[in-house]
Amino acid sequence: MDSDNNWRERLYVMIFQTDTVAGRRFDSTLLLIILASLVIVMLDSIDSVHKNYAPVLAGIEWGFTFIFIVEYGLRLYCSPKPLRYAFSFYGLVDLLAIVPGILALYYSDAQYLLIVRIIRMLRIFRVLKLSPYLKQANYLLAALRGSKQKIIVFLVSVSTLVTVFGTLMYVIEGPEHGFTSIPKGIYWAIVTLTTVGFGDIVPKTPLGQVVSSLVMITGYSIIAVPTGIFTAELATAMRGDSLKHDCPVCNKNTHEPAAAFCARCGNALFKKLE
Amino acid sequence: MDSDNNWRERLYVMIFQTDTVAGRRFDSTLLLIILASLVIVMLDSIDSVHKNYAPVLAGIEWGFTFIFIVEYGLRLYCSPKPLRYAFSFYGLVDLLAIVPGILALYYSDAQYLLIVRIIRMLRIFRVLKLSPYLKQANYLLAALRGSKQKIIVFLVSVSTLVTVFGTLMYVIEGPEHGFTSIPKGIYWAIVTLTTVGFGDIVPKTPLGQVVSSLVMITGYSIIAVPTGIFTAELATAMRGDSLKHDCPVCNKNTHEPAAAFCARCGNALFKKLE
Amino acid sequence: MDSDNNWRERLYVMIFQTDTVAGRRFDSTLLLIILASLVIVMLDSIDSVHKNYAPVLAGIEWGFTFIFIVEYGLRLYCSPKPLRYAFSFYGLVDLLAIVPGILALYYSDAQYLLIVRIIRMLRIFRVLKLSPYLKQANYLLAALRGSKQKIIVFLVSVSTLVTVFGTLMYVIEGPEHGFTSIPKGIYWAIVTLTTVGFGDIVPKTPLGQVVSSLVMITGYSIIAVPTGIFTAELATAMRGDSLKHDCPVCNKNTHEPAAAFCARCGNALFKKLE
Amino acid sequence: MDSDNNWRERLYVMIFQTDTVAGRRFDSTLLLIILASLVIVMLDSIDSVHKNYAPVLAGIEWGFTFIFIVEYGLRLYCSPKPLRYAFSFYGLVDLLAIVPGILALYYSDAQYLLIVRIIRMLRIFRVLKLSPYLKQANYLLAALRGSKQKIIVFLVSVSTLVTVFGTLMYVIEGPEHGFTSIPKGIYWAIVTLTTVGFGDIVPKTPLGQVVSSLVMITGYSIIAVPTGIFTAELATAMRGDSLKHDCPVCNKNTHEPAAAFCARCGNALFKKLE
Description:
Four copies of one chain form a homotetramer. By secondary structure, chain A is mainly alpha-helical. The first copy, chain A, has helices at residues 2-16, 21-45, 47-78, 82-86, 89-96, 99-103, 124-127, 130-146, 148-173, 182-193, 206-222, 224-239, and strands spanning 243-244, 254-255. In chain A, helix 2 (21-45) packs antiparallel against helix 3 and helix 9 (148-173) runs antiparallel to helix 11 (206-222). Chain A is flat, with a radius of gyration of 28 Å. The model of chain A has no long low-confidence stretch (mean pLDDT 80). Chains A, B, C, D: It is a multi-pass membrane protein. Chains A, B, C, D: This is Ion transporter. Chains A, B, C, D: Residues 25-235 form the Ion transport domain. Chains A, B, C, D: The chain crosses the membrane at residues 29-46, 52-74, 86-106, 151-173, 185-202, 214-232.
């Protein structure tokens, strides 16, 4: 049974790690299969394709689901702590990638749930040399975390603006110009404030156009706010803020980035060599 | 009467403060009621809902107005300085949240004024642990205040651009392509410069399309201006947690908040009196 | 004749300067008149207004032109160096504000040229306490000047992108989907790249939609470029870059913003007081 | 044969360099010809022009192709290392500018390939005093290179978002509202997320409009991400005219370009060998 354990371990290294050649090859192949399975779902949604190739595509889809079931089984089998894997983030996602394929047998609409397989694509960062990307993602996340409260303040303000402007436009323009209800007015205000401007609902009255102009200029200007918040936080996260160095006299350990003297005791932080 | 005073004081703590459990619960409940009342106004504006449930919704709306009247009365009653509350920002907003409900009895359109209740939602910042949000809002406000003059210069330039381009397009395209007047041309210029682009009015002549291209590229580029202004100011405001004091020797003017000595020249920032 | 000179000088102070009460009042009144004259031009362009009030509006317009002629005459009369004024920027603008009013007698379309009067509105900065605004405008101009070359590189790249994409879409979509010529394709590419998106011309073929997606994501991403350029330049312009201080030993006069020692000779820039 | 070599060398200087008057004049003329040839291609694509002037334009086009053939021959002839030129970037572009003109004899659609001549316009930077522009372009490229990984993280996230939202909208809205397939849904999601908003496909169901609002607000907010990334990197790249060298005492790692001593601790940056 020792050779069995050995085989299981080698399988584990191949499936779960990316350091070995086999591991990288396994992950790359897996990504390609996931991508192919996504493409099949998309193709199947095109009417003309569905009419002509529905059975073929369903067969291929089944093949992919089978592959993923086998893969999931192998992961459970070779994992030293199967339960831990099963309830980890990746484990749940891997399960989610299988379920809709089985559900699709009974409810044909369930196949669109297959699109959750895209989450599995996150493994792509493991293939493209993991660590530098993660570090970059960490910078971005640090910047986002640092600006969380500012962003909530911003989103609450935007929601308020959008509600007020949407109601105003509903009252001004009325149902005959497409503003059939307050929620529709709010939808319009979001479309306009974010500068998307579909044009399915547009103001017709002069007063409505004046209010619209206000909404548009507001939207055009306040985009500066999330951008400014994020940029300032990112610059801070990248600069790494303060000088870490123990003051030789008072042991104060963080200083202004360019400090030459300790701000607490006034002694030179770095000895001048004679 | 001492117990009455005591009861009033406890009511005051519950209604006006958020430090106690009761106070937080009161504010949370109030927010939910405000939200519910806003949802009712919105639902009532949808035609199909209005047709079938108008009396029910009007009744619920009345209930909410009644609750707000009671709440306003209690606030006046338990406040140590009722007049001061009545004329404070929140006091006026609380009053404004009631008036349209009563007006709606006589003028049915007045009910849309109920949307001002959204301003009461600002209390949400009191529930979500007040202070850090306020500090963040202060940063944003400081950045906006710091960039006020730059923003005025920017808005005046944009207004000028929009007027000139709007008139130009009116002359070039003329009423037969939807540019029926100069104000309409200006409205179009705003829609285009802010990159909203509804598409309700579009240039048809080649020359008009050339001018439009100019407007669009201008709009696409000058969005950099408010963003740049705000970002630079925000970065300054965020850095500004620092001690503003001219070093008597080297004139370095910002220091760590607790600095006793200048980090650049090592001299004491503040003279020690003998 | 001394009293005449005196009177002329007082007129000069009132018309050309904004330090005195009379001067400010004169400039404010002038701005209001300019604004009113612009509003009249705009109103006159609205068809329903024009039909009913054309003669009245023409009369008012004439009145304004008359006022501006008188004002121009007074400026020439009281200016110590009339020719210098006449050929200054403001002098030419003031003249331009009159000419179309006279031309309009012969060519009715010329009245739209009256919109050039908006340039006179620039005087508004003189009324709103001049200097801080000018300083802010200088910051903005310094930032723009500093980024001039980067902006040219950016605009050339955008023009190239737009031409290539426009031609590509013309070949892919063809005249039957609205892309009737290469210039039209370029116009579409500008509309799309700048994220305006009128929707008057939209891709219909799958390949066209793929290329469009590329254009849109490009446009969405490269807006970061002018914003980044301008923000970085503005931050530099506002920070004021370097420490100006003569090194006591080698007289090097600019240093890193936080320098404690001279980078050329290694001596302390600021004496440490014992 | 010496005079022939001399003549060839002078030709080389004129054609390949921009330091001499003749060289600048040659490059300017070439740019004008390229521009003219692009304009001809564009004009020829306009239907009404094509109908009336097709033979004339084809003739002119032929003339331009002939000029470019001659120019390419001269470049090959006078270049000291013809093969090296032929396989350089500019050499290949110069060849590409000729081929479609010849292909157009057999396939009339090939003439649109002539638009690749726009790449030759890159020579414009050589005419407008080369070096400062190249330096600026280098800054931009350095900023882009520095943010490459962050941008990949960003693009992968956007692709995921767009796929998920596109599928969701296909399921919610369905073919009867224009969302005829998942790829079409993804196309719509890109149009909306990038705030282009053509308006050719718009959500009709309330649920679809709620999801759209989410997409729009996401798109409006996350534009901050590439902008923030690029701005922070550009600021770093612009600051980076500095000397990168770890101070042996305090580890300060950037210094003025000509620094001999560390501005923070005053120690010599480089050991003096005895």
